[in-house]
Amino acid sequence: MVVCVCVWGAGGLYAVAQFNSAKRLGTPPGNRSASPVDARAVQPRSLLEDSNKNNDNNNMPVSNTFGSKRFPQAIIIGVKKGGTRALLEFLRIHPDVRAVGAEPHFFDRFYDKGLEWYRSLMPRTLDGQITMEKTPSYFVTKEAPSRICTLNCQTKLIVVVRDPVTRAVSDYTQTLSKNPGLPSFQSLALRNASTGLIDTSWSAVRIGLYAKHLENWLQYFPLSQFLFVCGERLVSNPAGEMARVQDFLGLKRVVSEKHFYFNQTKGFPCLKKPEGSSRPRCLGKSKGRPHPQIPTAVLQKLRDFYRPYNRHFYQMSGQDFGWD
């Protein structure tokens, strides 16, 4: 799945967010009663004191000292090649959402750096704004659920899922672009060509076992704290999926049909150009690489393999994604 996204300039978007939120200080957006508790409440006292010291630094530009850095109240935790980057950029249009651009990888790779390091990566927010980050590998990291819950068990979790077969091919295509000498898809996906057994040790296959990964998360978080976004619908009906996301986050529905247009050449939606911009901009050229030709028999073996896992995932999530 490929989504084309127009990215507003960070400074302009930040200024709009600050202006809109400043007008409503004290009046949270949408139904804030459903939103998680302010994550500052769970910070160690030393972190809060450091935050106040940073805010008092008069030598910093006003744009860098307005508001405060908070732990994220919502995290896009997965999945890789599902459409997480598109979702994050769509959300960043909203004046009440402030998000980290790069993937922090705190709860999987850099947990030993500590909470202060993690919070330092967060953008500054005003009261009523939501802090977010996205790291798709969290969903398949065994330790991530317990670590996030240790920080804040009320964190809202968003999972963007996609047909696991096409997701696996997209994953392979990305790796192939960085390593042209990679073996063929079928040689990696199958343990043995004669038996046709699927190799679940290959990450491209393993990530698509959504039900197994979700079981790990449900040990720490109730299902009500998850939103499962359909990667296919994020392409075919971006406004509809974004309405669900905004409702889940307790936000006013600001991102709507008026923000999107369908690029007939590229075959996926883009964001319309903002006022003052000469033209729309889309996600980088790395998105939308042509997939290699995979033997139909191999794809069918994968579909048969994933079918029981998909059906279990439908039952667990309460959504039928129609991949079978």
Write the layout of secondary structure elements.
Layout: H1 10-23, H2 45-55, H3 62-65, E1 68-69, E2 74-78, H4 84-91, E3 97-99, H5 115-120, E4 124-125, E5 130-134, H6 144-151, E6 156-161, H7 164-178, H8 185-189, H9 203-206, H10 210-217, E7 226-230, H11 231-236, H12 238-248, E8 260-263, E9 268-271, H13 296-317
Parallel strand pairs: 2-5, 2-6, 3-5, 6-7
Antiparallel strand pairs: 1-4, 8-9
Helix pairs in contact: 10-13
What would your notes on this structure say?
The chain is an alpha/beta fold and 324 residues long. It has a domain at 68-164 and 205-286: P-loop containing nucleotide triphosphate hydrolases (Rossmann fold). The chain is 38% helix and 11% strand. It is built from 13 helices and nine strands. The protein has helices at residues 10-23, 45-55, 62-65, 84-91, 115-120, 144-151, 164-178, 185-189, 203-206, 210-217, 231-236, 238-248, 296-317, and strands at residues 68-69, 74-78, 97-99, 124-125, 130-134, 156-161, 226-230, 260-263, 268-271. The strands form three sheets. Strands 3-5-2-6-7 form a five-stranded parallel β-sheet. Strand 8 (260-263) and strand 9 form a beta hairpin. Helix 10 (210-217) packs parallel to helix 13. The longest helix has 22 residues, at 296-317. The relative contact order is 0.18.
